[in-house]
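LOG
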Amino acid sequence: MTHQPFSDGDRLWNLSENGTFPPDVYEHPEWYSYGDAADQCAAIIRAVRGKPQALVPIYRAVPAGITTINTGDWILIAEAPARVHAMQSENPAHDWPVITAVVWADLVRSGGNDIIEWGYFGPTITATVVDRTSD
């Protein structure tokens, strides 16, 4: 797969690190996001600013049977957009599961697109499936 998150993108706890985002990302995160989860993601980036060891839940839509999140995988820091990524057809029965794990903010790097999509850059971790009834 050629479309991968940046291994040198800004880390979640320091969005001014490598210039992936302009310095005003903390004051105006809405300029760097879209969708219903923008406010939730903005709150997360503000809460972990300057805290590399802050614990952050991450989410990933995966085919059934996958239970790991690997270094370089695309992830999301809010469940709602992961649910959108999981949609496979008009029939919810065909949707992929969403898995989740909790990681340090230091292991989450910007995908370079917005404040909703990120890359995971830590060791392979076992995740748990998010119960669909939590929507």
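LOG (cont.) second protein
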Amino acid sequence: MTKKKFGKIFFIILFFLTLFVIIYSKFFREKQTSLTNQKEVEDISNNSNIIKDIEYRAKDTDGNEYIITAKQGEIDYSNSNILYLTKVVGLIRLVNSENITITSEFGKYNSENFDTIFTNNVIINYLDNKITSEYLDFSLERNLMLISKKVVYTNLENILYADVIEVDIQTKDTKIFMYEDKKKVNIKSKN
């Protein structure tokens, strides 16, 4: 092989290697960088603001007091008014009635309107009455307490099974019903 031919082949190989390095660094390295940046963004969004030993208090115009406490809470990044709670206790101090206590494993609290959703192992105690369920939507805005999912109401004399118990907070009017028309609310006497 002559020096001219060897030089041309060497130059062509060098040209393609340079072209390969440029293409690789331009396209593949940018993709790798953008994936790294995306992962960093995901890591930032998964970081949380955890607050320990939380207590929120609110009073309505009638003087009723609502107190929510939790072992810990995590602020929702998309809406800073929403707080996800664990080991939740709610206390409702009614002016003309006895206190109502609510406990649950988890909750979702809206600090703007004081609405609270209690979930997982919900227990409501009022006088000699106890209601257990898996879900409770407590809304001051709507003056409504909506209890659902595996609802069991117990008092000194009876045990009641239903899909939903709806309580108007101000009037204490209560509706107990099943989702399906064919199913009936089941009441058993303890005696």
